Amino acid sequence: MSLLITGGRIVTDKDDYVADILCDGETIAAIGSQLSAPQDATVIDAAGKLVMPGFIDPHVHVYLPFMGTYAKDDWDSVSRAAIVGGTTSLIEMICPGRDEDPWDAYQLWRGKAEGTAACDFSFHMGVTNWTQQTPDLLRRIVDDGVASFKVFLAYKGALGVDDQELFNTLELAEQLGVIVTAHCENETLVAELQQRLLAAGRTGPEWHEPSRPTIVEASGVEHITTFAQLTGAHVYVVHTSNQAAVEAAAAARSRGVNVWVETVISYLTLDETYAQKPDFEGAKYVMSPPIRGKAEQEYLWRALAAGEVSTVATDHAPFDFHGQKEMGRDNFTLIPNGIPSVQDRVNLLYTHGVATGKIDLQRFVDSASTQAAKLFGLYPQKGAIQVGADADLVVYDPGYRGKISADTHLMNTDYSAFEGWEIKGRPEVVTVRGKVMAEGGQFVGELGHGRFLARKPTH
């Protein structure tokens, strides 16, 4: 089966030119002018459109037992939503409980994606405990194709690791060439601030941000990079929300630490006033680290443009407002953390980044696709438009105008954090390994088309 995309403006992290792309089966076979279509080829006219590599979200939660409930999406809903939004590969965080066997957790998480996912997928293996068996189990998981770990310096008594566990994890990662992704906060300070606020009767969602101030997040970055410097491990700071945290990573980098920074689309588009909405509406915007003030948002855009921030992910963690977020109506620490956004990331980044001139098209592609592919062992199979790469392609219509709404999104949540927001541009056609999976904002593919992406350590 062949696919020919003609006359599109091809944009990658480095290039910008007009050409045709011929896909043969699952990969790109040729790039050039006036390419001939084989008899059986599907032909897509991309004149006036952008053609970019399929986008990669390196930080999502799909199956997630968390805070007394479960995330609402499964691989049916999340992969359809991702594809319609232009994302063709997802990397999910595996978050086992402290008493859960890592191999069993890996098998459980992977089994929920296999045979259902429409997009390609991989995992970061969460390390939430350290026993005598842990190193051998983690080596087994790495050998099976998972080339990254995840640690939490938050959620004390639940997912968080202590310093000995952190040191052991980074030491093993360095030995194996595995990158460690890290949620960076100071869990002890967060727990203390939470209790003091609750004791003072400050129970609403507007107090979530003051319980996790920027300095607590920056402290977490300093902590992980100190351990990285001692062990030589490579680390990736997830969902970074503020200037102090980004600068802590930059300071470590200047000392020779191998550290990269991710932000998420919510920090670039929302500000703390959303979590302060009355009548408990602010609960819709509770995530950790919290959404910050406008000044932090503006700084993150500049840092993204300058490359100090490498990637834009979502930290997609979908919970309903009714029945789930409401669990914390009288205690903000019980509000399930997370904002559903996997379908909206690419369009919001284009609308509020490219269309406003905050970032250019190359940085757009780099931060939402290519950097993730390079950091997590997928490049140039993913994140590239070149002969031999997977035919994951997004034909993007910059002239489209529309609005985001929970009434039309494919995510399995009862609200959208961006309800009524206008978007400028959307994916017109999305392919995953040469197969057309979305057209005109509609999912037209097949569930189960997605494939596990076995990755080799590259760090």
UniProtKB/TrEMBL annotation:
What region holds the Amidohydrolase-related domain?
Answer: 50-436
List residues, modification N6-carboxylysine: K150
Q: Which cofactor does it need?
A: Zn(2+)
Source taxon at top rank? Bacteria
Tell me the InterPro entries matching this sequence: Amidohydro-rel, Hydantoinase/dihydroPyrase, Metal-dep_hydrolase_composite, Metal_Hydrolase, Metallo-dep_Hydrolases_sf
Q: Which family does it belong to?
A: Belongs to the metallo-dependent hydrolases superfamily. Hydantoinase/dihydropyrimidinase family.
Question: What is this protein's name?
Answer: D-hydantoinase
